[in-house]
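Exercise: predict the structure of this protein bound to zinc ion.
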Amino acid sequence: MPNYDFVCPSCIKHFEVFISYADYDNHRVLCPFCGSYDTVRRISRVRIGHSEESRIDSLLDLEQLTRLENDPQALGQMMRNMSHDIGEDLGPEFDEVVDRLEKGQNPEEIERELPNLTDPGLNPKDIGI
Ligand SMILES: [Zn+2]
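Solution:
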């Protein structure tokens, strides 16, 4: 039995209804909150599920980033993987930063010691770290 998301414009509440495909066309869905029949099926169910997933993803990312902040070697590794994924040579400065990170140097220190890092892409902070 399919499970539909409905929204009631009268009371601005969302609810789920289980109705069969056969019943769907002439089925008027009663709002369980205010009793209105003026309900609208939300067709964005998949997108909603998606955004819930990406919220979880971004939480995981945040956790990962927090961990990386305290782990320059993992950060360097991640940046190296990222540059592989991009498939572009990001320049000698990038390699320098990654090398230093992988040796365990922290990003602030690297920034101080390499003041000529003008390309924003080379700054670990600019990739959200
Ligand atoms: Zn309602």
